[in-house]
């Protein structure tokens, strides 16, 4: 059995070259940007009125006793207008191009209009209420740098520069595989000795949250059937995420079948709880990476977050965001197992605290909805103090 640190290092040593792909803008949400996005023009692209009101030439303001004949109306979406007569003004709407020969905008609330003549009632500053061309960014400036995660805000930035297609890091082809004779479909009524399969659905959901599509399979505990289906799955995927069949039981065939199919075992069993019987391997020829998680639901879920997500981030070349939060009480983690403890975080004056939730072991899948992550506690002789900083792995 190897330590958690060794297992983690091994997993990160077996990343895949995933390349890039071009997708329609909306499908780039939650993906990793693989190109720099530049301004296609100045931002804003013209001197833009920021208030509804009138546009004047400031020098006229001094000379005309604050009274301006209205010459026209400039709406947003109309080409730039021109102030033709010295001493006049143009009504201007927010988002419109500031008319030629004007340099100052006064909002309606600060003027009164009678018979097409505007009188200014407030102090005016030259250049007010104008969002100047290129004042946010100049054409050609890098607005988004490759390697970032695309969220709604970045979608907006790309939309405004006309990127209807975006280059993103490619997703791996993944199949999630549930194993076990006891498992039935979500819409089935289980017999007393059966359960509905939840692990692979949870994995699919966790992947979908990150905009990663998956296929899913259910395989029974039969060596021949496993062998046949896994051979195809190895050929057709970059990654297999399995759950179940890796412990000491009479029907835990996965390690044996994988090795018979030419998958090289990198390790089996890690000094950790939950998730100890984790089996990890690679098929070098087919370039498939296999995460075979122990079947207990909390084990599958913990190992997905602890190992698979950092592995994926490394494939995409983006850093894993490690977060450290404070322990809310004392805990003693005796050697030799590293512990992943489900917690709920709470924000208090001194920072964010990890409060362990009440749960009933790694088979208690209901507990997963009561926590928002795991803290990772390495084994040590000395107890962990209340307030001590510990690594937090978010699951929500
Ligand atoms: N003699 C030993 N027994 C066990 C050990 C051990 O070290 N020695 N380790 C225990 C630990 S820790 C875990 S975790 C489990 C891992 O078991 P397997 O990976 O072999 O998984 P299964 O036996 O197939 O199932 C275990 C458990 O999980 C349920 N399960 C499986 N798949 C799903 C699914 N898709 N959705 C919901 N629940 C699932 C399954 O019904 C079992 O209850 O082994 C311990 N035993
Ligand atoms: O890994 Mo097991 O999850 O300790 O039950
Ligand atoms: Mg088992």
UniProtKB/TrEMBL annotation:
Pathway involvement of the protein, from the record: Cofactor biosynthesis; molybdopterin biosynthesis
Pfam family, one: MoeA_N
Annotated InterPro entries: MoaB/Mog-like_dom_sf, MoaB/Mog_dom, MoeA-like, MoeA_C_domain_IV, MoeA_C_domain_IV_sf, MoeA_linker/N, MoeA_linker/N_sf
Catalytic activity: adenylyl-molybdopterin + molybdate = Mo-molybdopterin + AMP + H(+)
Alphabetical UniProt keywords: Magnesium, Metal-binding, Molybdenum, Molybdenum cofactor biosynthesis, Transferase
Cofactor: Mg(2+)
Domain MoaB/Mog: start-end pairs: 175-314
EC identifiers of the protein: 2.10.1.1
Role of this protein: Catalyzes the insertion of molybdate into adenylated molybdopterin with the concomitant release of AMP.
Family per similarity comment: Belongs to the MoeA family.
Name of protein: Molybdopterin molybdenumtransferase
UniProt organism field: Maribacter sedimenticola
């Amino acid at each position: 059995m190897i330590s958690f640190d060794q297992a983690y290092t091994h997993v990160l040593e077996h990343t895949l070259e995933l390349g890039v792909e071009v997708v329609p803008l909306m499908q780039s949400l939650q993906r990793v940007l693989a190109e720099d996005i530049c301004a296609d023009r100045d931002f804003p692209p013209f001197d833009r009125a920021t208030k509804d009101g009138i546009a004047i030439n400031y020098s006229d303001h001094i000379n005309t006793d604050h009274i301006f004949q209205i010459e026209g109306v400039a709406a947003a979406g109309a080409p730039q207008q021109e102030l033709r007569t010295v001493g006049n003004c143009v009504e201007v709407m927010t988002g419109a191009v500031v008319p030629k020969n004007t340099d100052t905008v006064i909002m309606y609330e600060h003027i009164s209009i009678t018979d097409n003549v505007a009188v200014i009632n407030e102090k005016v500053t030259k250049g007010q209420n104008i969002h100047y061309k290129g004042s946010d960014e100049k054409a050609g400036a890098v607005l988004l740098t490759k390697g970032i995660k695309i969220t709604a805000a970045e979608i907006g930035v790309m939309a405004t520069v006309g990127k209807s297609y975006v280059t993103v890091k490619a997703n791996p082809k993944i199949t999630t595989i549930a194993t076990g004779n006891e498992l039935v479909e979500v819409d089935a009524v289980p017999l007393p000795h059966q359960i509905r399969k939840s692990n692979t659905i949870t994995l699919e959901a966790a992947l979908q949250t990150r905009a990663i599509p998956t296929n899913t399979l259910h395989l029974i505990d039969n060596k021949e059937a496993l062998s046949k289906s896994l051979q195809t799955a190895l050929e057709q995927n970059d990654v297999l995420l399995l759950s179940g069949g890796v412990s000491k039981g009479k029907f835990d065939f996965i390690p044996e079948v994988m090795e018979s199919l030419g998958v090289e075992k990198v390790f089996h069993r890690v000094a950790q709880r939950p998730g100890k019987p984790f089996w990890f391997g690679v098929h070098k020829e087919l370039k498939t990476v296999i995460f075979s998680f122990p079947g207990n639901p909390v084990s599958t879920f913990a190992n997905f977050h602890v190992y698979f997500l950092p592995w994926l981030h490394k494939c995409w070349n983006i850093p894993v965001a490690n977060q450290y939060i404070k322990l809310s009480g004392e805990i003693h983690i005796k050697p030799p197992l590293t512990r992943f403890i489900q917690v709920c975080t709470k924000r208090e004056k001194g920072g964010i605290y990890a409060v362990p939730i009440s749960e009933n072991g790694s088979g208690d899948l209901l507990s997963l909805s009561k926590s928002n992550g795991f803290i990772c506690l390495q084994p040590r002789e000395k107890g962990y103090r209340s307030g001590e900083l510990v690594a937090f792995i978010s699951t929500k």
